[in-house]
Amino acid sequence: MISWLVILLGLASCWHYTDLDSASTIHSLWAPLGVMLFAIALAIKLVLTLGTGGSGRGDSDGFFGGHDGGGFDGGGDCGGGGDC
Questions:
Q1: Backbone φ and ψ of 76, nearest 5°
Q2: What is the SS3 assignment for 31-83?
Q3: Which one of 18, 23, 52, 65 is most buried, counting C-beta atoms within 10 A?
Q4: Integer Cα distance of 60 and 55 in angstroms
Q5: Can you give the pTM of this predicted structure?
């Protein structure tokens, strides 16, 4: 819960102090960078919290749904030069 609070307060405060036309380096450079970093942190936090809907653990399907990496037909390189 505290990490949500830190991310949201950091994002809000950096957003408040962002002024791209300012002569101050803090307002024109560091605050926008803070907004970007806190927004990325918020996106990562949301993805980790909400997940993808599945368990994500123990799946044997792999990334593309069970492909064994042996070409398009599922075979390897035909063994020792034999006819495929």
A1: -90, -135
A2: HHHHHHHHHHHHHHHHHHHHCCCCCCCCCCCCCCCCCCCCCCCCCCCCCCCCC
A3: 18
A4: 12
A5: 0.59
Residues, the chain: 84
Tens of pLDDT, residue by residue over 1-56, are 899 999 999 999 999 999 989 999 889 999 999 999 999 999 999 999 998 765 55
Taking only the tens place, the pLDDT of each residue in 41-82 is 999 999 999 987 655 555 555 555 655 555 555 555 666 666
Cα–Cα distance measured from residue 75 to residue 69, given in angstroms and rounded to the nearest whole number = 8
